[in-house]
Amino acid sequence: MFLAVFAALRPFPPPGGSGAASELMQSAADLARSGLPTGMAAGQWTSRRPISWISLAAILVSLFSLLPLAFIIWIAVQTGWETVSALVFRPRVGELLVNTLLLVVLAVPICIVLSVALAWLTERSSLPGARLWAWLSVAPLAIPAFVHSYAWITLVPGLHGLWAGVLVSVVAYFPFLYLPVAAALRRLDPALEDAAAAVGLGPWRVFRRVVLPQLRLAICGGSLLVGLHLLAEYGLYVFIRFDTFTTAIVDQFQSTFNGPAANMLAAVLVTCCFVLLGIEVLVRGEERYARVGSGAARQQQRTRLGRATIPCLLLPVVTTLLALGVPFVTIGRWLVAGGANVWRLDEIGLALGQTLFLALAGALLATIAAMPMAWISIRAPGPLQRLLEGCNYIVGSLPGVVVALALVTITVRIALPLYQTLFTILVAYALMFLPRALISLRASIAQAPVELERAAASLGRSPLKALWSTTIRLSAPGAAAGMALVALGIMNELTATQMLAPNGTRTLAMAFWAHSGEIDYASAAPYALIMVAMSLPLTWLLYVQSKRMAGR
C-alpha cells in the first residue's frame, strides 16, 4: 500500500531492478540531509510547516469577512446612542419588524410541511414518476425569486401584501428545505421503523415518533436557509409592494446615499439574522443521529399508496404548476407579445458576457478564499478552526444589502479609488457566497487521504507543492461544485450588484430589473428566460450531487 502511494506521486523506474526500494532509500536519505530524523512521522512534519501559513491565510480571510459586521458596530458607536435610539425605536421600524416576523412565521412552517410531504412522496412512496417529481421539486431554484414575483404580478396584477409575499416566497424557496429533507430520508435506516411497527405503532405514529425526529437536523438547516433568504430578499417584495427591512434599506440608500437611517435598519436586520441563528441552534439540540451497531442500513421499501395515489399525485402536480408553470407561462406569453423586437441581441449579448465574467471571477475568488479554511477544518480541527469557521458562516448569513452597504461606506470614507470598481464587487461576492464554496471544499478535502500529502512531503516537495499535487487536485470536483453554487448565486444577485458594480455594468439581473421597473415586461422576458436557462444546469448539478452523497 505504501508503494502504491508513491506510485501515484512519481513513476516507478523501469522494471527489472529494485527501483521502488532504491526510491524509498533515496527518500530516507533526503530526509536525513534535511536535518529531520528518518523515524519522524510525516504527520508531525506537515503539522508544523503547512499549518502555519495556511492558518495565517484562514485568519486573514476570516478577519476580512468580519468587515461588514464590524462596520455595523462601528457606525452604531459613531452615531451615538441618542441618534441610534431615535432611528431604531420609531413606528416605521416597528412596522417593518412586524412584517418581517409575520413573513418568517407564516412562510417557514408552510415550507416545512410542503417539503416534508414532497420528500416522503418522492423518496418513500410508490408515487408514479417519483424521480421526475423529485427533479421538478428542485428545479424552482433555477428561477430567481424576483422572476417568480414578476411572473405572479403580471399574471395577477392585484397580488400585493403579506399573503402575496408568503405565496411567492414559498414557491420560490421551498426547494432549500426539500433538498436536505429528501437527502436525510434516503439515508435513514428502516430497521428503526420496522422495530416501531413491530410493537404495534401505526404508520402515522411511526412517522411522527421515529422518522420525523431523525429529520430534525435537515429541517432546522433548511428552515434557517429559507429564513435568511426571506430576510435578505429585495426584488421579490418590491414587485408585490410588501415592505421589509431589505426594501427599506435600499430605499433609504437610494434617497439619502448611505444615511444613518439605512445603517441602523441594517443593524436591526443583522440582529434578526443572529436571532434566527440562535433559534436554529436551540431547536437543533445535541442528539445523536448516527446509526450505532454492526451491519449496514438496508434499502427502504417504498410504501404503496393504493387508492391514495391520485390525491397524493395532486400535491407535486399543483406545486410544479405554481413554482414552474406560472413563471414559464408568463415568460412565454410576454415573449410572444413582444415578438422579435424584444430580442435586442447587442444589449443581451453585453449583459450575458458581463454576467458570465462576474460569475466566473467571483466564484473563482470565493473558492480560492475558502481553500485555507476548508483545509484546516479537516486537517487541523480545534478551537481556532471552529472560531474561524463560525465567523465565515455568520457573516455569510448577512443579507447582501448589508454587505454592499458596508463596502460602500468603507470605500467612500477610507479607500475612495476602490468605490464602484471590479475589485469591490468581486470582494462582495466572495464575502456573500464564501460558505457555499467552503461547504463543498470541506467535503472534498475530507475524502482526500492525508497520507498522500505526507508521502509527497517525504519525497522532498515543499508544503505548497505537496498540497497542490495531492489534496488540491483530488478535491477539484468538490471545488467545481462549489464554484457552480457560487456562480448560481452571483448570476441571480441584484442588490449588491446595483450598489457596487462599476459604471456601465449591466448584468442580466440588472437589465431585467431596469425593464421591469419601467413596466416593460415584454422587454424583460428575454433576460428572465436566459437567467433561468443558465441556472438550470447548475441546479441539475446540485440535484445529482445530493443523490451521490446518499449513494444513489
Describe this structure in a few short sentences:
This protein is an all-alpha fold and 552 residues long.
The poorly predicted ranges are 1-51
Return the structural class: mainly alpha
Helix content: over 70%
Instruction: Report the biggest beta sheet as strand number plus sense, adding barrel if it closes.
Output: none
- The average pLDDT value, as a whole number, equals 78
Strand content range: under 5%
Number of helices: 28
Order of helices and strands: HHHHHHHHHHHHHHHHHHHHHHHHHHHH
The overall strand count is 0
What characteristic shape results from the CA principal axes? globular
Protein name: Fe(3+)-transport system permease protein SfuB
InterPro entries: MetI-like, MetI-like_sf
Membrane topology: Multi-pass membrane protein
Keywords: Cell inner membrane, Cell membrane, Membrane, Transmembrane, Transmembrane helix, Transport
Describe the model.
It is a single chain. The chain has 552 residues and is an all-alpha fold. It has helices at 2-9, 19-33, 42-48, 50-65, 67-79, 81-88, 91-124, 130-138, 145-155, 162-173, 175-187, 190-198, 203-214, 216-232, 235-239, 245-256, 260-284, 309-338, 345-379, 383-396, 400-413, 422-446, 450-458, 463-474, 476-491, 495-500, 508-517, 521-549. The longest helix has 35 residues, at 345-379. The two termini are 29 Å apart. The relative contact order is 0.13. Mean pLDDT is 78; it is low at 1-51.
